[in-house]
Amino acid sequence: MAFGAQRAGRQFVSQETVQEPEAVEDLPPESPLVGAMNPAMNGDPVMEEIMTGLATCLCTTLAQAGRPACCCMWFRGAHRPPMDYCHCDCDNGGQGVAWVRMLNAENTAMTGTNPRISGFRADCAVPAPRWRITVEMGVYRCVDTGDDDHGPDCAQRTNDAANGHWDDLLIMQAASCCDVIRNRRPVFIRVDPVGPSGGCAGSVVAMWLDYAKRKTP
Q: Residue 126: which of 15, 46, 33 has the closest Cα?
């Protein structure tokens, strides 16, 4: 299933439909917004470009290799998505769940014994230093659990292992060929198998990316 279909419920508001927020100076003195910056109206287009772009590249690469996932998602959380349901069969002939997640963001200016800190801006705008984000791309698949009396045999476990390492390769291929991060200095840092748990097992690839308002050519 294409990632775009999964985002049908996400409402992105265009500039033409945005109503200007009430000016801070027009608010009553007791308003909690007095003295505070106006709320963001259009989300984080940079993060949305990176994460939805990576999810699309991942789903496309898996499908082209004949191993489509039933869905792709951008997941936000302190931990990886729960391995509670892997979608073992879907209309596109595939199985499994593909996902992307940001683990953290670090200011790369905070290095050495004398960090280069410019301070906060007087106009309340979010500063744009050189941030580095850590991103995970993962695929969960259904694995053979055997029957009630016997677990999976050696041949089944070997087959699941081979398919898992194939997903490792496909995830890295998806990231390496994804134009949306080409100019964000991607660096692979980890490849981890996960599971099995509840009939699911998977592959996770982590990498560093530059997070800046504008990409460097």
A: 46
User: What is the CA 168 to chain-centroid distance, rounded?
Assistant: 16
Rounded CA separation 145/83 (Å): 14
In terms of C-beta density within 10 A (0-12 exposed, 13-18 middle, 19 or more buried), how is residue 75 classed? middle
Run of H or E residues at 133: strand 131-142
The label of the residue with tokens 């695929």 reads 139
Rounded to two decimals, the pTM is: 0.74
CB atoms within 10 A of CB 134: 16
The stretches in the chain having pLDDT less than 50 are 1-37, 113-115, 217
Q: Which residues pair with 208 in a beta bridge?
A: 134, 187
